[in-house]
C-alpha cells in the first residue's frame, strides 16, 4: 500500500478504540513455595488474574491451555530449566512477555534469557519496588503493543485510522523528503525526546542525531540499492530535550535507538521511479543497550570488589607485554595473597570477610599509579600489572606501600582486624615473556614469602622453581606414605613438677621420608590440608595411637590419658564420633584414657555443631582440651559453652619469660582463668629453668619442653616409662614413696597431628 504524506493528517486520535476494564493474566512459575507465595501476595491486589505453577510440567500445561500477558519465570526448576520453557514458548509461537527471575550470579543465564526474548532479567533477591515497576512496565509495553496491533488491523480496512496508529505507537514514526527534511513525525517524539512535532517539521534529520553518529546516519539514509524498496537497520543516538530525572531512559542528554529506514517511491504509473523520501520507525532500545553493557561489564569485573577479574586482567597484561616488547621496557606482575584472611572469615563470617576484601581492594587501589591494573584473582588473591618500570625499585616501592597500607587495622562494624599480605613479583622479560609464565612465577615467589613467615614481598628467582618442584614431589610422595607405612608417632613427655614424674606426653607425627629423612609435622601437614589428605592421615592416626596405647599399657602406663589433636576438617566429618568409638572398642581402650584436643578457632567455625560433637564424646567418657589458648579470636564465653577440661598455654607465651621475678600478664591471666574455672593447665615449650620456676611459682605444675625431654620414638618412650617404674619400685623397697601433688592432673598424653 502506498502512503502519501497528505493522508497522514486524515485521521484523528478519536478513531482509536481502546479496550477498557481489561484484567492482565499473569503466570507465576517458581518451585520454592515460600517465594511463590510471597510473589502471589505481592501482586494479588493489583487487578491481575494470577495463576501459579511449581514446576516446568505445570507451567507448560498452563501455557498450552491459557493465554497469558506476562510470565514471571524462575530459571531453576526441578524438572526442567527456565530456558527450556522459553524455547517451548518460542517454538509454539505462544504470546506473552517473560520476566526471568534467578539467583544465578553467572552471566550465562542472563545472556541465555535475553537471547530467548526475555523482557527483563531480575536477579534474586530483588526489591519489591523493582519487581512491581518491571511488571507494570512490561504490561504497559504489552498494552501499547496490543493497541498498536489492533490499530494496524484497523488500518488495513481504513486509511483514516493511520494517525491513531502512529500516534499511539510506542515508537517514533516519521517520514523524510529527498533532502532529508522531516515531513511527518508522530506524537511519540514529544514523550521520548522532548521535542514537539511543530519544532521538527521542516528541519533536517541531523538536528536530532548525535554528532558522532552523523556519518553513519548519512550512509543509512542516502545509500539506496536498485530494488523497488531498499531498507537498512542502523543504531543511532538521538539528542534529547528532556531534563534529567524525568525518565530513566533519558536521564542523560543522549539516547540510543534502533532505526529502520525504508525508501518511499512515487506511484508505479510514473515512467521513472525515483526515491521519494524515507519512512522510518525509531524504537527506543536504551534499556536493552544498558542491560547489555551491564552484562558485558560483569563478564569482565569482579562483582564484590568491582575490580577487573582474571579474564580482563589477562587481556590488559597481554597488551602491556606487547607495549613493553615494542618499547623495550620492563613491566612487573605481582601476586598478592592475604595472610590470616581465612581465620577472619571463619571467625566473623563470610559477610564480614566480604567487607574486608572490599576494604583491602580500596587500599590497594590507592597505592597504585595511573595506568597500573589491580584485579581480583579469586578468594583472597589479587594480581597487579605495573607497566613501564624504570627499574625494579618501582615495583619494590609499590609492594612496600601495599604492606604499609594493610598494616593499619580494619574496622568491621566494631571488630578491629589485623591482616598482612604475602607478595610475589615477576619482572618482564627476565622472569618470563608470556602471560602464563609471569603469573606462575609471581605465584611461586609469593609462596616463597609464605614459607619464610608471610608479611613481606619477594622477587622471583630461578632457584624458587626448584623449591616449587620439591613441594610438588613432596605432595606426590605424601600420598604414597600411608600405603608404604612411612608415618610414625613420636611422644614428648610431660612432667609433674611436684613429683618430677612423667605424667603424660604430647604425640607428634613424623614422616620417615625415604630421601629427606625424618620430617616434622610442620613440614608436610600443611600440604595434607591443602590437598585433601588430612582425613585419611587422621584415620591412620586413630589406629596408630590405639595400637601404641596397648604397648604402653602393657608397660605399666594404663593410667595415662591420651589427648587427640583434631584437624578442623576431621571434626567437621559427620562420622568422626563413630570412628572414634569404633577404634576404642576394637582395641579395647577405655574412653576415660582419651582426651580430644582442639584449637579455639575450631570453636568459632561452627560453634553449635562443634558443641554437639564434643558433648557426644563427653557422654562416651572422653574429655576435651583446648590448645594454643589465647592465640586466636575466641571469647571467654566459649569456655562456658564448650565441655572443656584442660587449657594448654601456648609456647609463644612461654618463650617470652626471661626473668622469674618478672611480670607476664597474659600467662597470669590464663592461669587465673584455669584456676577460676577448675580446669587443668599444661605449659608447652618450656626450655629454661627460669621459665619452669616462674610457671611453677604462679600455679602451673605440668610442663613439657626441651628442658625435660625431646620428642621420643615409641620404643624409647616405653623405655623411659619402664625406667621410671623401676625407680619407683626401688624407692618403695627402701620405704620411700613418690606421691604426686594433690593438684596434679591424671597422667596425660597429648597427640598433635
UniProtKB/TrEMBL annotation:
Every copy of the GGDEF domain together lies at: 329-462
Q: Supply the InterPro entries for this chain.
A: Biofilm_reg_signaling, CheY-like_superfamily, EAL_dom, EAL_sf, GGDEF_dom, Nucleotide_cyclase, PAS, PAS-like_dom_sf
Which is a Pfam family this sequence falls into? EAL
Which key words tag this protein in UniProt? Coiled coil, Phosphoprotein
What is the protein's name according to its record?
Answer: EAL domain-containing protein
PANTHER family in alphabetical order: BIOFILM ARCHITECTURE MAINTENANCE PROTEIN MBAA, DIGUANYLATE CYCLASE DGCP
Q: Which residues form the PAS domain?
A: 158-218
The Response regulatory domain is annotated at 25-139
**GO MF annotations in UniProt:** catalytic activity
Q: Which organism is it from?
A: Duganella fentianensis
Task: Write out the coiled-coil annotation as residue ranges.
Answer: 128-161
Which positions does the record annotate as the modified residue 4-aspartylphosphate? 74
Q: Which CDD domains match?
A: EAL, GGDEF, PAS
Q: What is an annotated GO biological process for this record, any one?
A: phosphorelay signal transduction system
Amino acid at each position: 500500500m502506498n502512503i502519501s504524506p497528505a493522508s497522514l493528517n486524515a485521521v484523528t486520535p478519536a478513531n482509536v478504540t481502546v479496550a477498557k476494564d481489561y484484567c492482565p493474566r499473569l503466570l507465576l512459575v517458581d518451585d520454592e513455595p515460600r517465594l511463590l507465595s510471597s510473589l502471589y501476595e505481592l501482586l494479588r491486589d493489583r487487578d491481575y488474574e494470577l495463576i501459579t505453577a511449581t514446576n516446568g510440567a505445570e507451567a507448560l500445561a498452563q501455557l498450552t491451555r491459557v493465554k497469558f500477558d506476562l510470565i514471571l519465570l524462575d530459571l531453576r526448576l526441578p524438572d526442567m530449566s527456565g530456558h527450556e520453557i522459553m524455547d517451548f514458548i518460542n517454538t509454539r509461537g505462544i504470546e506473552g512477555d517473560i520476566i526471568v527471575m534467578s539467583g544465578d550470579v553467572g552471566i550465562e543465564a542472563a545472556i541465555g534469557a535475553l537471547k530467548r526474548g526475555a523482557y527483563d532479567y531480575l536477579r534474586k533477591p530483588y526489591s519489591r519496588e523493582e519487581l512491581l515497576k518491571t511488571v507494570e512496565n512490561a504490561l504497559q509495553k504489552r498494552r501499547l503493543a496490543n493497541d498498536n496491533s489492533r490499530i494496524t488491523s484497523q488500518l488495513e480496512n481504513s486509511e483514516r485510522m493511520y494517525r491513531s496508529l502512529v500516534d499511539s505507537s510506542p515508537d517514533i514514526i516519521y517520514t523524510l523528503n529527498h533532502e532529508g527534511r522531516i515531513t511527518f513525525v508522530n506524537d511519540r517524539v514529544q514523550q521520548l525526546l522532548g521535542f514537539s512535532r511543530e519544532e521538527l517539521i521542516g528541519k533536517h534529520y541531523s538536528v536530532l542525531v548525535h554528532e558522532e553518529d552523523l556519518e553513519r546516519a548519512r550512509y543509512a539514509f542516502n545509500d539506496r540499492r536498485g530494488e523497488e524498496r531498499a531498507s537498512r537497520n542502523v543504531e543511532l543516538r538521538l539528542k534529547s530535550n528532556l531534563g534529567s530525572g524525568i525518565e530513566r531512559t533519558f536521564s542523560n542528554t543522549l539516547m540510543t535507538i534502533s532505526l529502520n529506514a525504508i525508501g518511499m517511491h512515487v506511484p508505479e504509473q510514473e515512467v521513472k521511479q525515483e526515491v521519494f523520501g524515507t519512512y522510518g520507525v525509531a524504537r527506543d532500545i536504551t534499556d536493552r543497550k544498558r542491560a547489555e553493557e551491564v552484562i558485558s561489564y560483569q563478564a569482565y569485573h569482579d562483582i564484590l570488589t568491582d575490580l577487573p577479574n582474571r579474564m580482563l586482567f589477562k587481556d590488559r597484561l597481554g597488551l602491556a607485554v606487547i607495549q613493553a616488547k615494542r618499547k623495550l621496557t620492563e613491566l612487573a606482575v605481582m601476586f598478592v595473597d592475604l595472610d590470616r584472611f581465612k581465620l577472619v572469615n571463619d571467625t566473623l563470617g563470610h559477610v564480614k570477610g566480604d567487607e574486608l576484601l572490599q576494604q583491602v581492594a580500596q587500599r590497594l587501589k590507592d597505592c597504585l599509579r595511573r595506568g597500573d591494573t589491580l584485579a581480583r584473582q579469586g578468594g583472597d588473591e589479587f594480581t597487579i600489572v605495573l607497566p613501564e618500570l624504570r627499574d625494579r625499585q618501582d615495583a619494590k616501592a609499590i609492594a612496600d606501600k601495599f604492606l604499609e597500607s594493610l598494616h593499619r587495622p580494619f574496622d568491621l562494624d566494631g571488630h578491629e582486624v589485623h591482616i598482612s599480605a604475602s607478595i610475589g613479583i615477576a619482572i618482564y622479560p627476565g622472569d618470563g615473556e608470556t602471560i602464563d609464565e609471569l603469573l606462575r612465577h609471581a605465584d611461586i615467589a609469593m609462596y616463597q614469602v609464605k614459607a619464610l613467615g608471610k608479611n613481606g614481598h619477594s622477587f622471583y628467582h630461578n632457584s624458587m622453581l626448584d623449591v616449587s618442584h620439591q613441594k610438588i614431589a613432596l605432595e606426590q610422595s605424601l600420598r604414597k606414605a600411608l600405603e608404604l607405612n612411612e608415618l610414625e608417632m613420636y611422644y614428648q613427655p610431660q612432667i609433674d613438677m611436684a613429683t618430677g614424674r612423667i605424667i603424660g606426653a604430647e604425640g607428634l607425627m613424623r614422616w620417615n621420608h625415604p630421601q629427606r629423612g625424618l620430617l616434622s609435622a610442620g613440614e608436610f601437614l600443611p600440604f595434607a590440608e591443602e590437598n585433601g589428605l588430612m582425613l585419611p592421615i587422621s584415620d591412620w592416626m586413630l589406629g596408630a595411637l590405639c595400637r601404641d596405647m596397648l604397648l604402653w599399657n602393657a608397660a605399666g602406663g594404663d593410667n595415662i590419658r591420651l589427648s587427640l589433636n583434631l584437624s578442623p576438617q576431621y571434626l567437621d566429618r559427620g562420622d568422626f564420633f563413630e570412628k572414634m568409638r569404633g577404634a576404642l572398642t576394637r582395641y579395647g581402650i577405655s574412653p576415660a584414657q582419651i582426651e580430644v584436643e582442639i584449637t579455639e578457632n575450631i570453636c568459632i567455625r561452627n560453634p553449635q555443631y562443634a558443641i554437639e560433637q564434643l558433648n557426644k564424646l563427653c557422654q562416651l567418657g572422653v574429655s576435651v582440651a583446648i590448645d594454643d589458648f589465647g592465640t586466636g579470636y575466641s571469647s571467654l564465653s566459649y569456655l562456658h559453652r564448650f565441655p572443656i577440661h584442660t587449657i594448654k598455654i601456648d609456647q609463644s607465651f612461654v618463650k617470652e619469660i626471661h626473668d622469674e621475678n618478672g611480670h607476664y600478664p597474659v600467662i597470669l591471666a590464663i592461669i587465673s582463668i584455669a584456676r577460676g574455672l577448675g580446669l587443668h593447665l599444661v605449659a608447652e615449650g618450656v626450655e629454661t629453668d627460669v621459665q619452669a620456676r616462674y610457671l611453677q611459682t604462679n600455679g602451673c605444675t605440668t610442663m613439657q619442653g626441651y628442658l625435660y625431654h625431646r620428642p621420643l620414638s615409641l620404643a624409647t618412650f616405653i623405655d623411659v616409662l619402664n625406667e621410671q617404674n623401676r625407680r619407683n619400685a626401688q624407692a618403695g623397697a627402701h620405704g620411700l614413696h613418690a606421691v604426686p601433688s594433690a593438684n596434679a592432673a591424671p597422667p596425660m598424653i597429648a597427640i598433635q597431628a
